[in-house]
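Lab manual, section 2.4: Encoding a predicted structure.

Procedure: take the sequence of the chain (74 residues), apply the prediction step described in section 2.3, and record the output as structure tokens. A sample record is shown.
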Amino acid sequence: MTYSDIITMEPGKRGGKPCIRGLRITVYDVLEYLASGMSYADVLREFPYLTEDDIRACLAYAADRERKVDISNA
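Recorded output:
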């Protein structure tokens, strides 16, 4: 899954944080909902304008960021 077509960053929107398809919902928002116990179905029901691909893009984005974290402080 490539997230580059789904995850966008605009300086004037949500403080430049990574958002989904230019919407005002951030990757962090989606990850927080999933971490709190919401299922994909719960998130999609709560935010009907999102898709399963949007959720997977958030997970792929987070995984990619984690992979790039500098571990030199370990």
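Check your result against the sample. The longest strand covers residues 7-8.
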